């Protein structure tokens, strides 16, 4: 019998080293600095405002982590993935999520043990009565948060555009639309569709700016409102992505019932999340996301596809199905 090795445990326990190195690289603009082509240590160090003591170790660590490349002449370059996903200003940029992780989540997760002992959120606004009210009241933080939501939703949005039977519908509304990544992605893929996004009024200018930049202002509009206080806009399809996990069970049930009431007969609700597998053994990201909801919210938690189907049935939906999207994300589709 082989003796057990501590290698996996040590790698897991020290994985925050890797995470922080990547987050700092995004914050410092390493990938942006290489967008125009390779550069050597002597060029990159002053360009990024780094001290020479550890700059070489930092860049070479990123090479070892496979997020940078280095050629025989010592010039550093982005990998295909970082060139595509981590250069600011590109439509494919997903670094907004990593920026938020660096600015907010990294520190908050240092208090996970306290959260597990107390059941109380540990984010920077843990004394505020409403986390989202505090977040949305700060224009700079709000813009960063909405950009992060675009990053976390981009791949799932494309998968929903590809996999759902949009030919059977004409209108759709994304509830909690943030910057508008999901409506823009779907509308771009299906020219016959029109609709928009529903979110708090403060989001409106940011949503509209994003829609205009993507040339879709003729088919997508912003619907201001509070989904706990107001009725949802009526549409053939309603989407809730990374929304339900923010709230406790009764609030989840309320939002599903509001979606049911806003749909016509035959209409569909799409709920997508980093859905926990029904056996709760495989989707570590989904389970860790649920712990993130412990850190970030008063009552939120993630859930399995079976959980969501059960709540949809309680709300009145006649049928439902679970379908994998991409990575850890799956969607539950309920039909009225």
UniProtKB/TrEMBL annotation:
The keyword S-adenosyl-L-methionine applies. It comes from the Bacteria. SUPFAM superfamilies: S-adenosyl-L-methionine-dependent methyltransferases, Winged helix' DNA-binding domain. The keyword Transferase applies. Residues 15-87 form the O-methyltransferase dimerisation domain. Keywords: Methyltransferase, S-adenosyl-L-methionine, Transferase. Residues 109-318 form the O-methyltransferase C-terminal domain. It holds the Pfam family Methyltransf_2. One of its GO terms (biological process) is methylation. GO terms for molecular function: O-methyltransferase activity; protein dimerization activity. The active site is at residue 245. This is Methyltransferase. The lineage of its organism: Bacteria, Pseudomonadati, Pseudomonadota, Alphaproteobacteria, Hyphomicrobiales.
């Amino acid at each position: 019998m082989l003796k057990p090795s501590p290698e996996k445990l040590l790698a897991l326990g020290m994985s925050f080293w890797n995470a922080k190195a990547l987050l700092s690289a995004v914050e410092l603009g390493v990938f942006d600095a290489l967008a125009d082509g390779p550069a050597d240590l002597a060029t990159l160090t002053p360009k990024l405002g780094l001290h020479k003591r550890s700059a070489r170790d930092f860049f070479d660590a990123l090479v070892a982590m496979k997020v940078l490349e280095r050629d025989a002449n010592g010039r550093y370059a982005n990998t295909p993935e970082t060139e595509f996903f981590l250069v600011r200003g590109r439509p494919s940029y997903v670094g907004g999520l990593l920026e938020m992780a660096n600015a907010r989540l990294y520190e908050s997760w240092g208090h996970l043990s306290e959260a597990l002992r107390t059941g109380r959120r540990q984010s920077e606004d843990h004394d505020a009565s409403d986390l989202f009210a505090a977040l949305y009241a700060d224009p700079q933080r709000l813009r960063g948060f909405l950009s992060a939501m675009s990053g976390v939703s981009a791949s799932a949005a494309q998968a929903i555009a590809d996999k759902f039977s949009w030919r059977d519908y004409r209108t759709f509304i994304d509830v909690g639309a943030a910057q508008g990544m999901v409506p823009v992605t779907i509308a771009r893929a299906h020219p016959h569709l029109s609709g928009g996004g529903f979110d708090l009024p403060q989001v409106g200018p940011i949503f509209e700016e994003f829609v205009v930049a993507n040339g879709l202002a003729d088919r997508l509009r912003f619907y201001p409102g509070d989904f706990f206080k107001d009725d949802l806009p009526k549409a053939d399809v309603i989407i809730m992505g990374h929304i339900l996990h923010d709230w406790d069970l009764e609030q989840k049930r309320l939002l599903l019932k509001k979606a049911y009431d806003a749909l016509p007969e035959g209409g569909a609700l799409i709920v997508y999340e980093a859905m926990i597998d029904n056996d709760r053994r495989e989707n570590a990201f989904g389970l860790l996301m649920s712990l993130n909801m412990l850190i970030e919210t008063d009552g939120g938690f993630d859930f399995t596809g079976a959980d969501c189907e059960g709540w949809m049935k309680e709300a009145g939906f006649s049928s439902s199905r679970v379908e994998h999207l991409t990575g850890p994300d799956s969607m539950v589709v309920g039909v009225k």
